[in-house]
Amino acid sequence: MVINQSYLFLIFTLNGILIGFLFDFFRILRKIFKTANYITYIEDILFWILTGISIIFFLYKFSDGNLRVFIFIGLIFGFILYMLTLSKIIINIFVHIINFIIKILEKIFLIVKVPIKNIYNFLKKLILNEIYEFITREKNNIIKRFKKNKKICKKS
């Protein structure tokens, strides 16, 4: 019985660490991407939904749905342990990784932007020239028809 309770305490301590990691995931998102308040509220609700699902899953998977005080102590202990030991490290690592990825994507965008802009400008000039030539040609045709009709009207 004591071994089973120790096992459950360890499992729920790990669940508390998982919840701490999930908490930091949302903190990292907030550090990287500045969001509006309503997005923050949605993220908070999503965090609590995921936390609840995690706790319920662990309860039914490992303790057959039985609630014990040591389970909550394990959750709290795991969360606090994570926050005091790994949280800052995890946040710094992921912020650096995400910033590195963003910098790479920005460089790729700059590299791709120049040819795309040149192609766009070329097509724009080409299309505008075609439109200008079409309008000029049609204008000349209309003027010719008008002059032709004017001559016909004078003869009559």
Structure description:
The chain has 156 residues and is mostly helical. The protein has two domains: 2-85, no CATH class; 106-156. The chain is built from four helices and no strands. The chain has helices at residues 2-32, 37-62, 69-85, 87-155. The protein is rod-shaped and about 120 Å long.
What is the number of helices? 4
Task: Give the tally of β-strands.
Answer: 0
Helix content: over 70%
Would you identify the regions where 5 or more consecutive residues have pLDDT less than 50?
none
State which percent range the strand residues make up.
under 5%
Write the layout of secondary structure elements.
Blueprint: H1 2-32, H2 37-62, H3 69-85, H4 87-155
Helix pairs in contact: 1-2, 1-3, 1-4
Question: How is this structure best summarized?
Answer:
This protein is an all-alpha fold and 156 residues long.
Task: Provide the descriptors you would attach to this structure in a database record.
mainly alpha; 4 helices; 0% strand; rod-shaped
